[in-house]
Olfactory receptor
Amino acid sequence: MWPNISAAPFVLTGFPGLEAAHPWASIPLLVAHSSVLLGNGSLLSLIRAERSLHQPMYYFLAMLAGTDLTVTLATMPTVLGVLWLNQREISHGACFLQAYCIHSLSIVESGILLAMACDRFIAIRHPLRYAAVLTNTHVVRVGMGAFVRGFLSILPVILRLFSFPYCHSHVLAHAFCLHQEVMTLACADTTFNRLYPVVLISFTVFLDALIILFSYILILKAVVGLASGEERSKALNTCISHIGCVLIFYVTVIGLSFVHRFGRNVPQVVHVTMSYIYFLFPPLMNPIIYSIKTKQIQHGILRLLSKHRLGC
């Protein structure tokens, strides 16, 4: 069918061996995707509308919600296309673009979580300097730095994908494109594409995690030194939501990494399920965690609801 196998489109896969159940599997995935869009979209609208939330902490939260929305929008079309319509073919360019978005936004999210940890560190360790250090200009620069780092750092390996010939099977194991999977289909020397991501993740995601851990050690040290129990409780409450988001993100990253590295004998459906959890669980839980644990967001939601009722 394809005289030049290198030019043949890639073929996406839903749940291997469970093709008959794809329509049913699409229902919870559609609910999860819709919940991610609704939750993060509502969070962005709330932060934009409520002047009381125009603070560095919530600006970073808006960046986190925007990143989660973009990841979901990047993966949702192909996932539902495979499960609903059995549209499995994807062109090289579209596949590489999707992989670029997925991997770069993962690094962006790690950078934003680091920025949020630094925000809490300055707020608790140096409260008198907080307003002077984290001005709106500084917040924008930090956010731009996180996005530029994510989108530029992954670019070298994605660009190399365009130059590779693909003479192996074009079937991918997921309903979306991942760099490490596309790379294995290439009939070329992929040494750079195998080594560069390891170095990149070590100096971005893992380093971010270590700095976040160190910052919270210093935060806890500062909290313990506070005079009253009420002050300690108030300081810790401002960090709980962020700690929850950090744990969910890095636990899913580590879990997916372990399955890919050491789960060779694990059924393919487990690999696929873990990848869906990685892409859907953190974006789904982040707005829920902040809505439950952050009083300012709760008050903002109540004010918007009361305005809506009065308007009706």
Observations:
- The chain has a mean pLDDT of 87.
